[in-house]
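Hey forum,

I'm writing up a methods section and want to include a predicted complex as supplementary material. The small molecule is copper (II) ion. I've pasted the protein sequence and the SMILES. Can someone with a working setup run it? I'll credit the forum in the acknowledgements.
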Amino acid sequence: MKKPNKNYYYLASVTVPTASKSQLLKGLLSDQVCSNSKEGLAACLKSLKLGQLAGGEILPNPNTLASYKICTGEPNDTCVVSSSSDPDDKFEFIFNRGYLNPSDQDMVFTINGELYDGSQINKIVNVGTNQDWKLVNKDTQDHAFHIHQLDFIMTEVTVPNNYLLEDPDGRKFYDNYPVICDDNPATLPDGKDGSHCTLKTYKHGYRDTINLPANSEITVRIPFLNPFITGVFVYHCHILGHEDLGMMQNIKVVNPKSYIPRALRDKWFKEFQDKDNK
Ligand SMILES: [Cu+2]
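Reply by user p_vandermeer:
Happy to help. Structure tokens for the complex are below, copy them as they are.
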């Protein structure tokens, strides 16, 4: 995998027509495909189809998972460009607790107001999509988002200020991710002031769990690219007492278009050719 170069930064300004959104995985394109294109980078990116994506890996290097720009005043640092503006690729999950009915005695923990139901599929995803999930914790206590089978990177957070750590050099971190924060305050789910920050570098890689502070919004980007990771599995609060009291949902990943990442397709094709030549 090549190191990121300036071509990644340009991806931030590419506008993709709505009609091609299902074919184009925003943020997964690389200069390997388009840097020398005669028609220009933007036109080349718009013309790409599934299978021509950057590297075509099952689990791509996280630096190709998001679009980066140079952080203001720090020429050697990169920041994630804010998440996709395409609402079809953005989903919101609200974590909370309370009572399902006013007369109930026992507290429950919910995602989008629902208790876990093992017979229900809460989310269906096509392989070959790259999704942003905004995880909103409206509770007065922390939760921890965990997903099975898949990994993600955190791209942006809106959190109470006391959840941000600052090192002696003034660098800020959220949950060990280096971030860069807006100068102006951001509005938290309860209306109070907090901080909005975006991921500063990809170097900390993938995770399958992230803390959701009380009264916060955390956005994670999940690449659904592995054609073998299909079927039904779960995401849930990783505090198991919360999970057991309802804070869990089923996801079903399907591959109706038989999407295969390019690298895998090329590998299989080569093996096929090698066999044929023997
Ligand atoms: Cu929890």
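Some notes you might quote in the supplement: The helical segments are 6-10, 31-34, 41-47, 240-244, 262-277. Residues 109, 143, 237, 239, 242, 247 surround copper (II) ion (CB under 6 Å).
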